[in-house]
Write a structure and sequence with these properties.
The protein has one domain: Beta-Lactamase (2-Layer Sandwich). The chain has 4 helices and 6 strands; from the N terminus they run H-H-E-E-E-H-E-E-E-H. The model has no long low-confidence stretch (mean pLDDT about 95). The structure holds methionine sulfoxide. The site of methionine sulfoxide has 14 residues, from helix 3 and strand 6.
Amino acid sequence: MNPTENIAFNELSKSEKYQYLHTTWEHLYDPKCHSIGNLSNAIALVRSIFNHWWVGIYQVVDQSLHLSMFQGDVACTRIEKGKGVCGTAWSNQSSIVVPNVHEFEGHIACSSASNSEIVLPIILSSGECWGVWDIDSVHFNEFDDQDRAELERFIERLAEQKLFNY
Ligand code: SME
């Protein structure tokens, strides 16, 4: 059964949506499945609940960020350290909330439809930065400190489940 069907997410508050995300993920996560399948589901779940334009991850490979799993339109494949929102979040190892991407100096526009963005570093238990989690929205001011805290918690859980292992 698809846990995102038949639910009017637009009638839920942001807190209720995150509660649904955290609870549903524990049922959806399948320890017997490859991490690629699990992460694809995690990304799809976030996108379905919040109806975001683009949700995906970039992985650190050979000193740059390489496009990995995502849901949404085609995206740029490689981002250098310190470049764009993703490269900056990686370089600072801290999350960035961008209320208006057009005002972020150096923003990399993969799609002209995106107006706000949040990027969170994916930190492993070893302290190593594996990559970044990126979400784009067609709305301005879509993300705030609540999204930052809830998504950091979600990514921490995925890291605990050792899904960033490829
Ligand atoms: N906007 C990002 C690039 C990645 S796409 O949004 C998928 C950035 O400035 O790093």
